Amino acid sequence: MVEYLFNKSILKDLDYTNCEVTIKHSISFDNPGTGLSMRPLCRSDHAKGYMDLLSQLTQVGNTSEGMFIQRFDGMKDCKNSYYVVVIEDEQAGRIAASGTLTVEQQLNPSLDIKSRGRIEDIVVLNTHRGKYLGKLLLETLALIAKYVDCDDLSLECKDPLVRFYHQFGFIVQDEQVYMGNRYLH
Ligand code: 16G
């Protein structure tokens, strides 16, 4: 049985009517392009080249299938928190694109922002670029964020991509900078 990271019916419920990808490019969840299908990440996607795809965005190290499955199970156990959406090239049996929405609950329920969404790891295989798949993933993740009641949606990106994300309503926030402290071992 195919095991999805999150309930696939969420994708079927999304309304793409006002999305640019649908208006301009006539694509959506059930029609991402010829030979392509869109779905939640599966437990078996390591074998479909998920890590190779991710390596086109960032360092992946030597992640074995066992490590991938262990991490998948841990993410799935965190209910309503991880939404990894992939686009599969069905003929090649390869994952061609992926994007992640993570949802953080805020502790104080009286705040305006009760739940914060973060977009991560938007990546399209270099052989599949120029088909609006990145746009489709972003609009899909934003619709999921709305569907699961996020009050805020944010992302981090490299400088040259600021213009790309700007198209989707993301703006560099006043008086906010991204700070990081990596590799705290
Ligand atoms: C981008 C990604 C981020 C990822 C990072 C990896 C989006 C919106 N942002 O900023 O999720 O963690 O690249 O870069 O996809 P790094 O290899 O320098 O950590």
Ions, cofactors, ligands: which are bound? Answer: 2-acetamido-2-deoxy-6-O-phosphono-alpha-D-glucopyranose
Oligomer description: single chain
Secondary structure tally: strands: 5
Q: Which structural class should the secondary elements be placed in?
A: alpha+beta
Protein architecture, described:
This protein is 26% helix and 21% strand. With 185 residues, it is of the alpha+beta class. The protein has a five-stranded mixed sheet with strand order 1-2-3-4-5. A hairpin with a 4-residue loop joins strand 2 (82-89) and strand 3. The model has no long low-confidence stretch (mean pLDDT 94). The structure holds 2-acetamido-2-deoxy-6-O-phosphono-alpha-D-glucopyranose. 2-acetamido-2-deoxy-6-O-phosphono-alpha-D-glucopyranose (16G) is lined by residues 57-59, 119-122, 155-158. 2-acetamido-2-deoxy-6-O-phosphono-alpha-D-glucopyranose binds at residues 57-59, 119-122, 155-158.
Brief rundown of the structure:
With 185 residues, the chain is α+β, with helices and mostly antiparallel strands.
Which helices and strands, and how do they pair?
Layout: H1 9-13, H2 20-25, E1 36-40, H3 50-54, H4 65-77, E2 82-89, E3 94-105, E4 115-124, H5 133-147, E5 152-155, H6 162-166
Parallel strand pairs: 4-5
Antiparallel strand pairs: 1-2, 2-3, 3-4
The chain binds 2-acetamido-2-deoxy-6-O-phosphono-alpha-D-glucopyranose (16G).
Output the keywords.
alpha+beta, about 25% helix
